[in-house]
Amino acid sequence: STVLIKGGEIIADKYGLYAGSKSSVRIESGRITAITAGEKGTAIMLSNCVAAEILDGEFTGESRGIYLEAGNAKISGGTFSGYCGAASGDKTAIFQLTGGTFVGTSESLRGGNGKPINWLAEGCCYYEFESGKIVPSASMDNYYWKTSVTVGECNHSLWEDWTFDEEDNHSHVCQGCGKTESGPHQWDENKRC
Questions:
Q1: Inter-residue contact 111 to 119 (CB < 8 Å)
Q2: Which one of 37, 92, 120, 165 is separated from 179 by 20 to 30 angstroms, measured CA to CA?
Q3: φ, ψ for residue 137 (rounded to 5)?
């Protein structure tokens, strides 16, 4: 089955939206709320979804904003919130994030088999929700993340120190997205690069 949501509001007990096996989901905008406390209070529950694409909207669950049991979900915008995780994935869940805000009381992101740092699309990074600073990818080398975050295109404002590759070259890596830059040495009058 195919689900297309282009706005409006859904308020439900257990699951605001439940998409089962072999479903396709596209959410362009709208608000989905699940009001039941505990495990079942999930705004968007995707169980073995073939493809899900979320462009924008507000998704609030007493437990989770979105839970991907299995399948694929691309998120480019929207705000997700929940006590146990704004976004959670099970062992075979594959997220691809290019945008969105994830606000969790206990956790913001939780991966069953994959670490949330691996959910980012190329060139994107996590920013701290409150400060807007890049979250260093090395600090997210875990299956869950507690701090609320926003995802966006990396501004490359947090670099590791330059390392010398060879006699005429050096490189450094962006701590937000993993991009590597390299270039020739440019020496000053004191022979410092």
A1: yes
A2: 92
A3: -60, -35
